[in-house]
Amino acid sequence: MGESSEPTSSRRRRLLRSLAAGATLGTAGCMRRLRAATGWESVAPVSVGIKTLPADADPYALRVAQSVAEWFRAGGLESTVTPVAPEELYRQVLLRNDFDAFVGRVPARLRDGDGLYALLHSRFGSEPGWQNPFGYANLDVDDRLADQRTATGETRREALADIQRSVARTQPFSLVAFPDEIRAVRGERFTGWHRSDYGSPLGYLSLDEGWRESAGEGATATATATPADPATLRTVITDRRPTENLNPLAAEFRWAGVLTGLLYDPLGYETESGGVEPWLADGWEFETVDGRPRARVRLREGLTWHDGEPVTAADVALTYALLSDVTLGRTTEGTDTATDSDAAVAAPRFRGRSSLVADAEVLDRRTVEVRFADCTAAVAAGAFTVPVLPEHVWRERTGPASVGGVDFGATSEALVTNNVPPVGSGPFAFERNVPGDRLVFERFDDHFLATDPPADLPGGVDGFPPYERIDVTVVGADETAVSMVTSGDADVTGTAVGAETIPRIGRSEGVDLVVGRSPSPYVVGYNTRRPPLTNPRFRHTLGHLIDRRALVEDVFDGYAWPAASALVGSGLVPSDLQFDGEHPVTPFFGSDGTVDADAARAAFRDAGYEYDDGTLVERD
Question: What GO biological process terms are annotated to this protein in UniProt (predicted)?
């Protein structure tokens, strides 16, 4: 008999009718072959790769990522974990958007609620940096983010509550927990460790002298600190990046800004209550003009940069202009685009705060008028917490970045310089560094803390601390850092260490354990620009596959607090988003770290996905 003349489409329909009638095909493999042969559907496995920090760079991130990947796989997803060195991870996540998901910590400026604006507003989705690294776009959230900038009282609280509820449902990131910051300290030479916040420069500036207090004025000092020697605060860290790059604008080198915060002063510091108190500024006065706030900011008298140049209002104005556009209106063709907002290249750090500022005008040598976008004065004051940069140094860095004589378009030198040695106005000045190994700061005796310390400074600071030098040493692991403190070779672990070091700290004579709640939570961040993570129902289901209680117990050894909102600790979390034993919106599918596969499969099917041989797939 010759080849059948039945049309292909008819054969396909006949086979599909057979399937619908219950024809048996023996194996799942045959089923897949039949689907391919008939063209019924083409399927592709759903996969989510997770990038994170290696164990020597973060005590928890890799273990969190491995647990999350295991739960995703239990739900039928293909999931892998890739450890990436810190600066490369942040380049991939923050600058190039080259990721499906990442596990790490988000910066801490969320206490006043407006930190959510930069973290989530869609206007920042195409910009590099910590502002909206997820590429999240939700018009309702955008509207409420704008509302909270202009509202006060209960109206603002409700706007922020609506934002938090939307985020909990749509999951641009799955919040895991707020870790405890664990540090080992020695109290013989300096005291005040337990009252200080070491996520802020103010924590180091509020320390007191220790050996005189404990031994008396006439006592003989220890070998590590004698009256004849300059007092040195010896800190040990596990992050080598600060020894290599001191550019406060470099997103891939700056997760936090404690060390650069000792080099550069802001106009003001945020307080525990969420307000802002003067620092480099002597004070400010707000008024409302055309419905928007303006502030007249007056600098303290006699301020100087570390190179002896005076600090002036022109430095403040240049700082805000540079943060809004690091090219100051230049293009690669050299044409003036100062009025073309699309051509601006915003600094990838401090973007949420700089977006509050419309412009800044010099009124006299010590006075600058800052005009703000549509917001309240209380929100606007957050813009005063950015580091003030010297105009005579940074204006020269607005040209195109160049390597080997090749210009890189709109990328400014300001974003790629390592800024060593730096010129700041802070209480400590750069003395020397050995990249990857050591960093030394010297006290800046022309700082206002030394010459005329004002009363009522934020953070409990009442003048210069008792040491004259900060000596930072880099080591490769938390255990090594703790060993340096227990052996008397360091005063403090400058970076927080993992919970596994606590027994060692507790057994060591003369060493105290300092534990404080971090305002920077661990999250599983999703790249919502990439399918299937573009689907909020898919992300919502992923949120159900994370057992936060198990992570706190098994990974953090209990030294963390699970949460459903990034605003925990601000007093702004609504009652329906309180974490009371379980996530109120995406409770774990299962119990005690074991996934309920049936519940996960049902949720993924509701989100529009199918299973093939136990693997989650999507139809092409």
Answer: peptide transport
Query: In which domain, by residue range, is 228 found?
Result: 183-238+428-516
Domain containing residue 314: CATH number: 3.90.76.10
Average pLDDT, rounded, for the chain: 87
Domain boundary among 414, 446, 476: 414
CA distances from residue 125 to 247, 317, 479 in whole angstroms, order as listed: 23, 26, 39
Residue 274 pLDDT exceeds 90: no
Residue 333: predicted pLDDT: 42
Is 113 strand, coil or helix? coil
In sequence order, the 6+-apart residues with CB closer than 8 A to the CB of 319 are 386, 387, 388, 389, 394
Q: What are the structure tokens assigned to 176, written together?
A: 């895991």
Nearest to 544 by CA among 574, 585, 575: 585
372 and 275, same domain (yes or no): yes
CB distance 220 to 530 below 8 Å? no
Within this chain, do residues 72 and 145 fall inside the same structural domain, yes or no?
Answer: yes
Provide mean pLDDT across the span 68-84.
97
Identify which of 579, 616, 573 has the alpha carbon closest to the alpha carbon of residue 595: 616
Residues 59, 27, single domain; the answer is: no
Distances (CA, A) of 103 to 45, 81, 122, 555, 586: 22, 10, 21, 13, 18
Nearest to 203 by CA among 113, 269, 107: 269
For residues 333 and 433, state if they share a domain. no
Structural domains counted in the chain: 4
Least confident of 1-10, 262-271, 593-602: 1-10
For residue 367, the Cα-to-chain-centroid distance in whole angstroms is 32
Alpha-carbon separation of residue 370 from 82, 321, 363, 563 (angstroms): 45, 11, 10, 37
Residues forming a β-bridge with 357: 372
User: How far apart, in Å, do the first and last CA atoms of the chain sit?
Assistant: 37
Bigger pLDDT: 451 or 119? 119
pTM of the model: 0.86
Neighbouring C-alpha atoms within 13 Å toward the C-beta of 405:
0
Q: Tell me the two tokens of residue 567.
A: 């605003």
The b-or-e profile of 274-302 (16+ CB within 10 A means b, else e) is bebbbbbbbebebeeeeebbbbebbbbee
Three-class SS state of 231: coil
The CATH number that applies at residue 188 is 3.40.190.10
DSSP secondary structure letters along 377-422? HHHHGGGGGSBP--HHHHGGG-SEEEETTEEEEEEEHHHH----S-
Helix (H) or strand (E) holding 314: helix 313-324
Q: CB under 8 Å to 13, separation ≥6 — which residues?
A: none
